[in-house]
Amino acid sequence: MSTITADQRVSQAVRERSDLFRKVFKWGGFGAGAVLVAFGVVAIIMGFSGRATVADSLKQEKIVGSADMTPALIAKEAKDAGLVGVDLPTVAVAGKSINSGPRARAFASYMRIHALEATGGFTYAQMGRFQAKPDAAKADLAVGGGTDNAAAALVDPATKQPVANGIRNLWVTETALTTALNTSYMADRLGLFGIVVGVALLLSGIGFIILSFAALHRPRVAAPSS
């Protein structure tokens, strides 16, 4: 009858503890992989859903690019209007439905050029709030036209209030629309980013599960008997 020595008992206890830790880590790998797969699937679904929402919202506005919304034609218009140092669009959307983030961004860039053409190249901050009187002093005039001095502004006979600078107000409308379009582009890119991250999480989770499965079914080398 064989007897178990103290060293053998210690060795057996160490192996049992080692086996326990191995199983914990292996099943932990399965759990981590499952969580990553779940997060990956959710991220992909949310990414596609977000991009679909952007496309549907843009389609509802029924925006179509005007005939001059090509890089060549808008460059000619900008040159004829004397615009210098402005960023010109590089994507043509003439006659195309604005139904995606990239097209929305391109349309917004064309809108900015059109607004600059209308204002002579001046932006909102360079123009006065009111229409200036014909005899207004030069010191009261803004760089881009108009005035911020109510005393130097034209007065509406009906309301007895200074007349608003319509060209400056054009920028308010242009900014509101381009901001909405650029926000659509940003939302579309974030949706695409979510899809990419989701795929990465999904692949990482599958990798964790495969490694854990391989480790769990790896045959254990028996300890040599003394």
What's the short version?
This protein is mainly α. 60% of the residues lie in helices and 0% in strands. It contains four helices and no strands.
Overview of this protein structure:
This protein is an all-alpha fold and 226 residues long. The protein folds into two domains: 12-127 and 165-216, no CATH class; 128-164, no CATH class. It is 60% helix and 0% strand. The chain contains four helices and no strands. Helix 1 runs antiparallel to helix 4 and helix 3 (101-119) packs antiparallel against helix 4.
Order of helices and strands: HHHH
Give the N-terminus to C-terminus distance in angstroms: 15 Å
**What is the structural class?**
mainly alpha
Contiguous low-pLDDT stretches (5 residues minimum) are: none
**Number of separate strands:** 0
Overall body shape? elongated
Please report the number of helical segments.
Answer: 4
Radius of gyration: 34 Å
User: What portion of the residues fall into strands of 2 or more residues?
Assistant: under 5%
Assembly classification = single chain
Q: What's the pLDDT, averaged over the residues?
A: 87
Report the biggest beta sheet as strand number plus sense, adding barrel if it closes: none
The percentage helix is 55-70%
**Number of folding domains?**
2
Present the secondary structure layout.
Blueprint: H1 6-61, H2 71-80, H3 101-119, H4 166-216
